[in-house]
Each structure stands twice: as C-alpha cells, then as structure tokens.
Amino acid sequence: MPRTLQPDRQLLGVTLALCFIGAVMVFSASAMTATEEFGNAYIFLIRQLVCIAIGIGGMYWLMNADYRKLRQPRVIFTGLAVTFVLLLAVFFLDRSHATHRWFRLGPFSFQPSEMAKLVLIIYLAWFLETRRAPRNLGSGRGIGRGAGGVNDPLRTLAPALGTVLLMAALVVKEPDMGTAFMIVLIAMAMLFVAGLSLRYIAGTVLAAIPVIYLLIVRVPYRLQRVEAFLHPDLDPQGRGFQLLQSLIAVGSGGFSGVGLMESRQKLFFLPEAHTDFIFSIICEEFGYIGAAIVLILFAVYGWRGFVAAMKAPDEFGKFLALGITTMVVGQAMINLSVVLGLMPTKGIPLPFVSYGGSSLLAMLMATGVLLNISQHADET
Question: Which residue of 63, 252, 278, 315 has the smallest Cβ count within 10 Å?
C-alpha cells in the first residue's frame, strides 16, 4: 500500500503563524497612516489579507503538485524567459518612488524581482543536479560533497553565475541592491552546498568587493545609508533618523511591550513602520517576548527546511529545499539586522510579516514547494 503523503506540520504551522502575526501587526502599524492617507484605517489590512488568501491558495496548490514536475526544461526556461522579460519591462514603465520595480494595477502592484528569486532557485536546483557527479548516497557524505562537475569553469560556473549575475544586474539597475544581494547570496549558498570549491568562492568575493564599493560610493543615497549606519547620531534629524527611531521603538518595548496598538513610534515617527521596519513595532508593542517568538518561528522554519533538504529523495529536491530555506531565513536575518542597527538600511521586507503583496506571494508559493518536498522525505 502506498504511504499517505503528509506535509511537515511544524513548517506549515510556523508559516501560518507568521502570516497571522503579520496581518495583526500590519493593521497595528498602518492604521494611523492609512487613515491619514486614505481615510480608511483598514485599507492596508484588507490588501494584506487578500494577498494572504491568494498566497495560501497558491501554497496549497504547489504543496499538492509534485515538485519534480518543476524540473522539466520547458517549465524552467519558460520561467526564466518570462522573468527576464518582466525585469526588463519595468524600465519602460513610470518610475515609482524614484525606482523601476513595480507593475501597478489599481491599488495592487507586482514586483518581478520577488518572483525572480524563486525562479532562480528552481533553475539552479535543476542545473546543479545535471552537473553533479554520481555519488554513493549511503556513504555518509554531506549533500555538498562528491560533486565532480560543479567546479567545471565552462560547463557549470559560466552558465550558472552568468544567469545569476545578469539577473542581479537588472535588479541593481532598478535600483534594488538589497534584493540583488539576496539573489547572489542564495546562489552562492546553493553552489557551496553543491560542492563549489572554496577558491572559487573566495575569488568571487574578492571580485565583488570593488563592484560593491563602486555601487555604494558612486550613488549618494547608498553612501548616506552607510554613513547613517556607522554614525546615526551625527545627523539625528536626517540620515540617521530612521535607524534611531527604530532603535527607540525596540528599546521602548522592554520585556513585555507597551501593548497591541499602543506603539508611539508608528505615529509618523518611524518611516516604513508597516513594511521594512515592522519588527520594530513588534518589539515596541510586545517587547522581548514578542521579538523572541518571531525569532523562534523563523528558527523553526530554518530547521524544518533543512530537514526537508536532508531527507529529500533526489538532488533536485535537496537543492530546491536548500535554496528556499536560504531565501526565507536569510532575508529574515537581513531585515532583523537592519532594524537592530547591525547592517545598513536595505529595502528587504520581513518574510510573511511585512506589508507587501509581491514578497508575501513569493514566500508562500516557495513554502508550498518546500512543503511538497517534505511530503516526499525518505522516499525511495
């Protein structure tokens, strides 16, 4: 009798819990802003709930559609082609907030770079599987060992890194350096686990240093963000304002917080309170307890994602699960680091929690794939 496929309930539970926390906190952080701008305190909450509903529908569909169908070349290359067309098409649309990132349709918007991360993960999972040398699955070696063809400069590194760097370059041009950084980070994590030599990784890092330096020093607002990160107190009403207000919100929460809906920093003090800096409001309203709960939920997500990767029945599933887990947990860690003043400010939302339909849909759909992989754990 074939076994009944069951998704990882812990992974599903923490995902839904993060979405619930996000909906509550989006309303709490945005009610005053929404009233001021639209005359309706519920506008951002309604949009977030719509995206959650659509995203959970997509997650459920992907959870029940065998992930191995995604390895078909026609699926992969169609996805890549559509992604690159959309990343190019945004440059022909009107700028929004001085950037070319969104397709807008009435009150809703779509950011192609968010879906690009998932498409890239699927492509790399398929590509690395085709380049892996056969190995003894019972030898006890890690999933990143025994990779014969991964270090081939022409057959593997050139097409893999070429696709990654082209995608990252288009996203940087929008401009969105934070998402471009995430694209490269995900790719390097997948390549490393596939067995990429440390000398290639070191060479890539060394080559990236002057590029990153020029991308920062030649763009005034990026340089100002770095200066604000290093010395926010030198310009507390200007460049350092957002970070200082975030730290005030975090510190004001104490151990148990000031209470739901009672945040003061969201009252037009902290910019982007319901988007990139929503964790600051969580810390203010629920204190150390609320912050710890969010951190634990992401830790559980990372743990269960790693378990799904380790137990996946094939290399494609392993790389796919690893890439998705890296995307979600890595993005969460970057967002939390920015909010706590451990990194310069980047436009990276907190997965499942921050307001924003494109990120939410991408994360839920990616989680649907991860849940599907977990159903096939240890399958032979």
Answer: 252
Q: Is residue 2 part of a domain?
A: no
Q: How far is CA 346 from CA 13, 135, 261, 285, 365, in A?
A: 29, 41, 26, 23, 23
Whether the link from the prior residue into 175 is cis, omega within 30° of 0, is yes
pLDDT of residue 107: 64
Predicted TM-score (pTM) of this structure:
0.91
pLDDT given at position 102: 76
Query: What's the pLDDT score for residue 345?
Result: 85
Domain that holds residue 179: 9-375
86 token code pair: 């959309």
Yes or no: say if 241 and 233 are a contact pair by the CB < 8 Å rule. no
87: phi then psi, degrees, rounded to nearest 5: -65, -30
In this structure, is residue 80 part of a structural domain?
A: yes
CB 23 within 8 A of CB 56: no
How far apart, in whole angstroms, are the C-alpha atoms of residue 338 and residue 177? 14
- In whole angstroms, give the CA distance from residue 46 to residue 55: 14
3-class state of residue 105 by DSSP: strand
Q: How many domains are there within the chain?
A: 1
Asked if the structure places residue 4 within a domain, the reply is no
Residue 171 lies in a domain: yes
Identify the burial level of 229 via C-beta atoms within 10 angstroms of its C-beta, where 0-12 means exposed, 13-18 middle and 19 or more buried.
Answer: middle
Residue 108 pairs in a beta bridge with 105
Tokens at residue 54, please? 């659509």
pLDDT tens digits along 1-44: 345 678 899 999 999 999 999 999 999 999 998 998 889 999 99
Tokens of 130: 């085709």
Q: At how many degrees (to 10) do helices 357-375 and 315-339 cross? A: 140
The SS3 call for residue 239 is: coil
Residue-level pLDDT at 361: 95
**Ranges under pLDDT 70 in the chain:** 1-4, 94-99, 106-108, 133-148, 378-380
In tens, the pLDDT along 255-273 reads 999 999 999 998 888 988 9
